[in-house]
Amino acid sequence: MKILVVCLGNICRSPLAKGLLLSKIKERKLDWVVDSAGTGSYHVGQPPHPKSQAVALEHGIDLSNDRAVQLDQWMLDQYDCIIAMDSYNYHDIIRLCQTDQQRNKVYRFLDFVAGAEDKNVPDPYGLGVQHFKNVFKIIDEGCTCLINFYQNQQKI
Ligand code: 4NP
Question: What pLDDT sits at residue 156?
Answer without folding.
Answer: 60
